[in-house]
Amino acid sequence: MKQLYFLLFFISFELSFAQTSSEILLNNTWRLVSFDNECFGHGPIENGEFNPNNILLNFSEENGQLYFQTEICQAIDGTVHINDAEINFTITSTQGDPCEHPLNQQYEDGFQCAMSAEYHFTITEENGFYKLSLSNEIFMDVTFTTELLKTEYLTQNFLSLHPNPVKAILNIENPDLKIMNLELLNSEGKIILQKAVNQKEIALNFNPFAKGIYYLKLRLENGRVQTEKIIKK
Q1: I need a labelling partner for 167 at 20 to 30 A (CA). Which of 58, 134, 136, 177 fits?
Q2: What is the pTM assigned to this prediction?
Q3: Same structural domain for residues 166 and 140?
Q4: CB-based burial, 191-220: b 16+ in 10 Å, e otherwise
Q5: What span, in angstroms and rounded, lies between the C-alpha atoms of 137 and 24?
Q6: Domain end (from 96, 125, 153)
Q7: Is the Cβ–Cβ distance between 181 and 163 less than 8 Å?
Q8: Does the pLDDT value for residue 14 go beyond 50?
Q9: What is the mean pLDDT of residues 125-143?
Q10: Measured in Å, how far apart are the chain's first and last C-alpha atoms?
């Protein structure tokens, strides 16, 4: 009898410290890892108006209602509704000025679209950190983590592009990771070249393009997307 009482007490003790999904969301700061969906816009440019590796998502609660707050160029506020494994985000307000650069604004538009949708969600724990994974039937996927993003994703840049400004051939090299595909966009954010690559070195011919500013979007084999400003002279 004592053993049964102890077992029941132990289970009760464990359950009292088990956190609900809402509590995990509320008790942590979440960092955007990636979003990939029909809303996705091109960009952002490196060293632009915001750091794409430091977009934070926070949750709060008032009178039993969950709220979220996040920010790129504009501050975004909204409500959150959770039902079992479903979570629904609804934006209620945006404050501040939109991004000035068109590529950054496309990225912000895509992120705002992603933060105004309904998802299936899972929260998993690994090495003391949580990962929030969101997905739905229309191929929208968003991932956040409570882990500080690794330094190499924040600052390390092994890409070499030369010469820039370029007149004829732009040499692109990445000794550590293959470049899987590239997109070249004009100053208005329109794609003018799209190409699968799957190699570490590329010689990109700029002869067909007029003088001006372009943005080269590269997707690396580790999934990272990097956008570089190119000047054609």
Answers
A1: 177
A2: 0.62
A3: no
A4: eebeeebeebebebebeebeeeebbbbbbb
A5: 25
A6: 153
A7: no
A8: no
A9: 87
A10: 86
For 66-79, the pLDDT digits (tens) are 999 999 989 999 99
Q: Give the total residue count for the chain.
A: 233
CA distance 75 to 73: 7
Query: Of 98, 122, 153, at which residue does a domain stop?
Result: 153
Assign 16 to helix, strand or coil: helix
Radius of gyration over every alpha carbon of the chain, rounded to an integer in angstroms: 22
Pairing outcome for strands 65-71 and 75-83:
antiparallel
Beta-carbon count within 10 A of 38 CB: 11
Distance CA 132, CA 144 (A): 5
Residues 233 and 218: their CA atoms lie apart, in Å, by 21
Residue ranges making up the domain that contains 223:
157-232
CATH of the domain at 80: 2.40.128.270
pLDDT score recorded for residue 4: 44
Query: Which tokens hold the place of 55?
Result: 């977009």
- Residue 184 contacts residue 219 (beta carbons within 8 Å): no
Q: Is 195 helix (H, G, I), strand (E, B) or coil?
A: strand
Residue with tokens 């750091």: 51
Q: b vs e for 145-164, b when ≥16 Cβ sit within 10 Å of the residue's Cβ?
A: bbeeeeeeeeeeeebebeee
124 touches 133 (CB < 8 A): yes
Tokens describing residue 199? 């190699």
Of 224, 122, 121, 232, the C-alpha closest to 181 is 224
